[in-house]
Specification:
CATH superfamily: LarA, N-terminal domain
Helix content: 25-40%
Strand content: 15-25%
Low-confidence stretches: 1-35
Largest sheet: 8 strands, mixed
Mean pLDDT: 90
CATH class: Alpha Beta
């Protein structure tokens, strides 16, 4: 599915940022001159070196230090708990992200959901980075299906601003962290049509809370109710940095697969999770306004549905 990201598309050699890259971009059709010299809202990097391209993307966005102040406590949510190809975030992306968070000077990093050792070991970068990966904290009780305990979870009732979600149970560390980094994958989902950054937030919930998302309206997997619950929970703690894996992903039979794989080799970063999910939506094969989490997220003020209104910087490695 070959589509331009938007009218402000900017393609450059990632090794040649600076005056040469800017000068070379001025002749691109549809390029807005002003957007060349303003900070991007979203960065998309194309290429097959996922580890380096994650670093390139975040650096182009302004660097990890723009989002992670020195001494801050970072909560990290990675969509990792699946087995089939195209159903989980490529671990090269996650390891590169953790490396940059550490280098930015975070005082601690907490995995808000359990990340199994074999997930990291799928990466060719694991051996070089296993020491700092072992130093990460983890909410060890938050493994699917998670059961509530007073030490790791908190019950919230009412959910402020929630339209459908009146109460929920979420990981305390998610609400307590200084910086929340959401590492999602754009892929198909049987109930919401796509999994992305917005839906990834169900990963901080207990099983009881997630069951209420699916059954709370009295109708199983009521699409309107489910989407609204997802958006309502995102209102509790907004994402500070989103890193979306749109490299290789399933386009059917989600979320667990196996499914048909689409290869786009794109890594998308920013802090507007609605716009990022809208970009992922197009890649999976839908229009952004067809997805209820997107439209409801926009209505709730979580981000911009029409990403052409943002400065989207696209780089080809």
């Amino acid at each position: 599915m070959a589509q331009k990201i938007n009218r402000r598309r900017f393609i450059a050699d990632t090794g040649k940022f600076g005056a040469a890259a800017i000068a070379g971009s001025l002749t691109l059709p549809g390029q807005s001159f002003g957007s060349l010299f303003s900070s991007p809202d979203i960065v998309v990097v194309n290429g097959v070196n996922y580890f380096q391209n994650t670093i390139r993307a975040i650096e182009a966005l302004g660097g990890m230090g723009k989002f992670v102040p020195k001494g801050s406590k970072v909560g990290l949510l990675i969509n990792s708990d699946f087995e089939d190809p195209g159903t989980y975030v490529n671990p090269d992306i996650s390891i590169a992200s953790v490396k940059m968070i550490i280098e930015a000077g975070a005082s601690e990093i907490t995995k808000l959901q359990v990340v199994k050792p074999e997930y990291w070991q799928r990466s060719s970068h694991f051996e070089d980075h296993k020491d700092f990966l072992a130093s990460l904290k983890e909410v060890s009780s938050n493994t699917f299906p998670a059961e509530y305990n007073d030490a790791d979870f908190v019950k919230i009732s009412p959910v402020e601003g929630g339209k459908s979600l009146k109460e929920t149970e979420v990981v305390k560390a998610w609400l307590d962290c200084d910086v929340f980094v959401n590492i999602a994958i754009g892929k198909h989902h049987g109930s919401t049509f796509i999994t992305g950054a917005l839906k990834n937030i169900m990963g901080v919930s207990t099983r009881k809370a997630n069951v209420s998302f699916h059954l709370g309206s009295g109708k199983k997997n009521d699409p309107d109710y489910l989407a609204q619950c997802i958006v309502d929970q995102n209102l509790l703690r907004k994402t500070d940095l989103c890193i979306a894996d749109c490299t290789k992903f399933i386009i059917n039979n989600g979320p667990s697969g196996p499914g048909d794989i689409r290869t786009e080799n794109k890594i998308i970063v920013g802090n507007d999770i609605v716009a990022i999910d809208a970009l992922c939506t197009r890649l999976v094969g839908y229009e952004p306004d067809e997805i209820l989490t997107n439209t409801k997220g926009f209505e709730a003020g979580l981000g911009q549905l029409d990403y052409s209104k943002l400065n989207v910087l696209e780089i080809t490695a």
